[in-house]
């Protein structure tokens, strides 16, 4: 058995999502290689080589790969696919984009969003916004899958000494989507998916100014990442990549504080695996209280300043 | 320019799915079904392209049971011109759906396939990417803005960390994210008009596509329930519990 994990990184740092995907790979078993595609991401390849349990690190480099253009990534991985039984990527926006494309090229049904490895060919994945869990078995052939990082513990980032080789990767044929530009939301706060504490704001905030006035100082006090409901993002209070939920980001921090969020099924899907959930909502009947460990029925306009004071 | 819009009939987004006691799946008997919300957004975008004079014809296609005709009628009432229903009593995997849609694209030769990013039942977020691969077309997924000009389209995508703009040459597959637009409600006259628009009835066999599953669903279970929580009296109580009971701050 050989498993290929396609690394998630920012060009210079290997993201924790990769370490968590490696943990799923280890549960599957066999030889584990890491493929680093990017635009000369050699620092990432070096970091991957140090991860415990990695046999070999492969690299593929081009400008399109640096932007994770799906066509380019699929073309790069395809010539390597023959050497592997299982190909995994974390379920990042990039992974969600290229894994199905790759799978289709291989005539494989991809397994999306694995949250548990039952055996080398059997996996659990959430469906219906996490209101049901599906146990699926591959019926032969290769396995191509995305792994939900929040469902796995990271493997140790050190202790390994794998070799790094440039892969005999394929090149896109020129018909791929062309990268034009990007708008990256810069923040000194922890990344939403990896943060130990997440504070999320909802429609109750009423405006972008109010959202940031309320949420940012609280997040900074707690060393937390900021999330939002779809309603808050749709209304322009928060950037799109703050959205937590079925169709946004999935988080599972030690502490999740939902402020002025009602608790729609779609929102719960993105945060209900958090260790401790706190809800602050002025409506005692808001559905969020059904899953909150600690519910505070209050107007956030008084509760959040009190909380800031109490936290010292 | 012709636009093909695949639309899926799924559980209504307001309904909480319940797992069947025998663990074979989710109970859909007597449950409200609707068009997948992301597909409504895709239909809306296609209709706007037509209103701008860019699209000339919109074809809505669904793979599903006979009742999926209603889903196609919804698309027709929103402004699609005609429909194709590939009747299928199972819920094929994205790979099989992509193969069927590829066959439809082969017959229809659309310049653009606009679809949802994700069906809210299976939560795969895979079919558009797979269809693009099978057609060897470029893909632009998770679109929050689409601008078509001549032989290409500029697509703003919602990605981790922010937004990304891609340029795709047409034909291409574009999948809709939540903020692409706000779908309209069909007006009563348009609902009446939609009843007269044609829907072609097909089967998977007509396209020579094998829709057999490649993955075996062993069981469908309920997720673990969270232990019941409590209401705290005030902020002081909350902070004390977070410090002393939960130990998370
Ligand atoms: C296809 C689809 C996908 C979706 N995906 C997602 C997703 O990924 N993530 C997501 O979050 N949603 C998603 N949604 C939307 C979801 O259904 C809800 O509409 C959304 O989560 C509601 O956001 P909200 O809780 O902020 O707003 P509301 O539901 O309007 O809730 C606002 C809450 O704030 C409370 N409140 C108001 N004022 C105050 C105050 N002063 N102090 C305290 N509390 C106050 C109110 O009591 C209320 O409970 C999706 C919907 C669809 C159809
Ligand atoms: N049975 C189907 N009939 C028509 N379109 C579908 C079907 N299944 C999926 N699609 C399309 O593919 C998109 C993504 O679905 P999925 O990959 O299943 O999450 C949906 O939003 C639809 O546009």
Question: How would you explain this protein's 3D organization?
Answer:
The complex is a heterodimer of chains A (about 300) and B (about 250). Chain A has about 300 residues and is of the alpha/beta class. Chain A has 9 helices and 16 strands. Chain A has helices at about 15-30, 40-50, 65, 70-75, 95-105, 210-220, 230-235, 265-270, 300-310; strands spanning about 1-5, 30-40, 55-60, 85-90, 110-115, 115-120, 120-125, 130-140, 145, 165, 180-185, 195-200, 225-230, 255-260, 275-280, 295. In chain A, helix 4 packs across helix 5 and helix 6 (about 210-220) runs parallel beside helix 9 (about 300-310). The mean pLDDT of chain A is about 95. The longest helix of chain B is centred in the first third of the chain and has 15 residues, at about 35-50. In chain B, a hairpin with a 2-residue loop joins strand 8 and strand 9 (about 160-170). Helices cover about 25% and strands about 30% of the residues of chain B. A 9-stranded mixed beta sheet of chain B has the order 9-8-7-10-6-1-4-5-11, with helices on both faces. A two-stranded antiparallel ribbon of chain B has the order 2-3. Chain B has about 250 residues and is α/β, with parallel strands linked by helices. In chain B, helix 2 (about 70-80) packs across helix 5 (about 190-195) and helix 3 crosses helix 4 (about 125-135). Chain B has helices at about 35-50, 70-80, 95-110, 125-135, 190-195, 235-245; strands at about 1-5, 10, 35, 55-65, 80-85, 110-115, 140-150, 150-160, 160-170, 170-175, 200-205, 215-220, 230. Chain B is globular. At the A-B interface, helix 4, helix 5, strand 5, strand 7 and strand 8 of A face helix 3, helix 4, strand 7, strand 8 and strand 9 of B. Strand 11 of chain A pairs antiparallel with strand 9 of chain B. Bound molecules: flavin-adenine dinucleotide (FAD) and adenosine monophosphate. Adenosine monophosphate (AMP) binds near residues 8, 39 and 122 of chain B.
